[in-house]
Write a structure and sequence with these properties.
72% of the residues lie in helices and 3% in strands. A two-stranded antiparallel sheet has the order 1-2. It has two domains: 69 residues, Winged helix-like DNA-binding domain superfamily/Winged helix DNA-binding domain (Arc Repressor Mutant, subunit A); 149 residues, GntR ligand-binding domain-like (Four Helix Bundle (Hemerythrin (Met), subunit A), Up-down Bundle).
């Protein structure tokens, strides 16, 4: 019985996480336990357990006397996350070049091809899933579980906005061009250039994120009847 309950809680948590990361439950949206329980065909108990787990993962937050809400990203926290991830790039690059093999190079090349296909369809959701798998493979080659876990935890906080950012301004094509360059440097064993490119890659994601979160804020302002919300400053050097 205990095992069945644990399995149910995990399934509900995965589904709730999917709804958030796919943007079906949007940042700031109230998570209504009964509505979700009815939707998933479960009681409210596993919904509560899932919310507690996702709060620890940084995807939801509990507001006293109001309930549980999909976490909205604080701009300063978000930019800090990108900066931290960029600094981790050096560790990853220096270690990964020593462990790449023809087998892993083929795996990463196949992921790049599948990302090309997703980009051609403008399927940002599928692209981001493959993108996460590509970077997870790179971290696996670095053979540093703590760094990989830290990067994954940091990245989860921003996935909703990263999905939107990749979908705009040719982000999919730019991102995958850099993936192809990363793989070439990895196979060459050029850790210094791989580190530089990986940091540039994360910086580009940060820029797209800032555009996406600005668009989200403007939509919310429009819904509230605010028509003079400031436009973001865009850059042309990415």
């Amino acid at each position: 019985m205990e095992r069945n309950r644990s399995s149910l809680n995990e399934r509900v948590q995965c589904e709730l996480e999917r709804l958030i990361l796919r943007g079906i439950l949007k940042p700031g949206e109230h998570i209504k336990e009964q509505a979700l329980a009815d939707r998933l065909g479960v009681s409210r108990s596993p919904i509560r357990e899932a919310c507690r787990a996702l709060e620890r993962a940084g995807l939801v937050e509990t507001i006293p006397h109001r309930g549980v809400f999909v976490r909205e990203v604080n701009l300063q926290d978000a930019t800090d996350v990108f900066d931290i991830r960029a600094e981790l790039a050096g560790i990853v690059a220096r270690q990964a070049v020593h462990n790449v093999s023809p087998k892993w190079a083929r795996v990463m090349a196949e992921l790049i091809e599948r990302m090309d296909e997703a980009a051609a369809r403008q399927d940002a959701g599928a692209y981001l899933d493959l993108n996460l798998e590509f970077h997870a493979t790179l971290y696996q080659l670095a053979d540093n579980r703590r760094v990989a876990a830290l990067d994954r935890a940091l990245g989860n906080e921003l996935l909703v906005y990263r999905r939107r950012g990749l979908a705009s301004g040719g982000g999919l094509e730019v991102s995958n061009r850099e993936h192809r360059q990363m793989l070439a440097l990895l196979v060459e064993g050029n850790a210094e250039e791989l580190e530089r490119l990986l940091k540039q890659h994360i910086s580009g994601g940060k820029h797209r994120f800032l555009i996406a979160i600005g668009a989200e804020a403007r939509e919310r302002a429009a819904d509230a009847g605010v028509t003079d919300f400031p436009q973001p400053t865009t850059r042309t050097d990415q």
